[in-house]
């Protein structure tokens, strides 16, 4: 009996060593773990890459890479001056406006001024060819009550009078600017309520992890594909918006829709002499098919 017990213990040790150390230490469900760790500060999609190489800081509801862990900054400087440096600016908030062009321009003129430079009506920007930048103010209050700087991009015309405008603002200014936009366009009614499915799914996943752990199947996933299944990362709201809040509003009189697209549209900045050549090599134009 003693020999049998020793044999059983020996077999158990051999079974535990069948997987490599990385596999043994891997979390049962990475999605559940990552979502749990993002309850207070949202991660950008490049978070794990940055977390391995940067000192991370928690600002404006996000977890951002602040400074590299390397003692030398020469690599970044060399990339900016001779090659290409990419920055993840996805923590900037995107506010989307949809509606008739004349209605949009009429109200947007109230929160900016030609005295400061470009406006939303600038021809080169209105065509959708270039991005514009300006300072925003409270409606009809220029030069007082400045809200802050913003950049904007018009979607190119498609032959219709309806246009689409994206306004990019810093997360610290997002709530004030969104409030002012809803006021000038009289968007008080929510078009749709933010679906809280990601949060529910995250909680369900955590419960599932607990059940699996209690059964002792620590390394097995209750999935047909087993370990080959790659879980989809879910973003719970964003750093400036509670997942239970509305994210889209509509004006009943004009039909203009304001949507909060934060963390739905990613944004990257390329700096350096090779930026354009890298973009042309990476991105290929899609063939436009007319129906």
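-> sequence recovered:
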């Amino acid at each position: 009996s003693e020999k049998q017990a020793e044999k059983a213990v020996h077999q158990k040790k051999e079974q535990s060593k069948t997987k490599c150390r990385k596999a043994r230490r891997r979390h049962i469900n990475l999605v559940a773990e990552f979502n749990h760790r993002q309850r207070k500060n949202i991660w950008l999609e490049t978070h794990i890459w940055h977390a391995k190489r940067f000192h991370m800081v928690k600002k404006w509801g996000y977890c951002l890479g602040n400074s590299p862990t390397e003692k030398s900054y020469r690599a970044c400087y060399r990339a900016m001056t001779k090659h290409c440096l990419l920055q993840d600016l996805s923590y900037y908030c995107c506010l989307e406006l949809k509606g008739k062009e004349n209605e949009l321009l009429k109200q947007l003129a109230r929160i900016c001024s030609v005295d400061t430079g470009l406006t939303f009506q600038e021809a080169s920007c209105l065509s959708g060819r270039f991005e514009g930048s300006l300072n925003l103010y409270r409606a009809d209050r220029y030069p007082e009550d400045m809200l802050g700087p913003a950049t904007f991009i018009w979607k190119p015309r498609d032959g219709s009078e309806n246009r689409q405008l994206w306004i990019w603002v810093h997360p610290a200014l997002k709530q004030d600017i969104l409030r002012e936009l809803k006021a000038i366009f009289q968007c008080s009614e929510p078009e749709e309520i933010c679906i809280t499915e990601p949060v529910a799914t995250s909680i369900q996943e955590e419960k599932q992890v607990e059940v699996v752990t209690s059964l002792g199947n620590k390394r097995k996933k209750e999935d047909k594909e087993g370990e080959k299944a790659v879980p989809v990362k879910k973003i719970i709201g964003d750093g400036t918006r509670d997942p239970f809040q509305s994210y889209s509003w509509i004006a009943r009189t004009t039909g203009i829709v304001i949507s909060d697209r934060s963390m739905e549209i990613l944004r990257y900045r390329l700096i350096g002499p090779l930026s354009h050549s890298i973009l042309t090599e990476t991105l290929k134009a899609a063939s436009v098919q007319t129906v």
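Residues 41 and 59 are 8 Å apart (CA to CA).
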